[in-house]
């Protein structure tokens, strides 16, 4: 699996294409309880993470392991949230499990000489996304708006007391299993940056290849993949 960039905002690096064996493995992971596949996905996610973090180092050699004597840059890995219903059905949140295990492996790499890694559970789903029938009829912009309306910043004690969560200056990398149109990642980026965060990129296990087939087929693929 080789990381590849697909979107400009944010830059997205995917470990592979959503085809054949990888597609079947992701479906087994999400819908079949095959959490044992996580370690294989994480191998590609770590490589994708290097694609994002390398340019942030003051020199390429530091990204590959030379000790950085200055203070570490703090990077928050932000999983795309699932709905409460999906989390109960699966018993886990796919993107969060991927983020946790990716962090675990990144902390064993030379990148820790330059960066400090934290899990950023900053996002939550306000409500369940609309049904598959309605979702398939939407264009990309309408789909992004619907996703944007269903996602929000995860509340904290201070937000309950009336103060918004302050994410100013926090560098974030989004983590998800599959990217299709990029609508979910763009919506998440918009929400985080509205609260002061800086989204430097996103990593996913797989990317659905761009096709010349009609828009409806592409919607069908995303609907099957991204029910949160």
UniProtKB/TrEMBL annotation:
<comment type="similarity">
    <text>Belongs to the ComF/GntX family.</text>
</comment>
<protein>
    <submittedName>
        <fullName>ComF family protein</fullName>
    </submittedName>
</protein>
<dbReference type="Pfam" id="PF00156">
    <property type="entry name" value="Pribosyltran"/>
</dbReference>
<dbReference type="InterPro" id="IPR029057">
    <property type="entry name" value="PRTase-like"/>
</dbReference>
<feature type="domain" description="Phosphoribosyltransferase">
    <location>
        <begin position="130"/>
        <end position="217"/>
    </location>
</feature>
<dbReference type="InterPro" id="IPR051910">
    <property type="entry name" value="ComF/GntX_DNA_util-trans"/>
</dbReference>
<dbReference type="InterPro" id="IPR000836">
    <property type="entry name" value="PRTase_dom"/>
</dbReference>
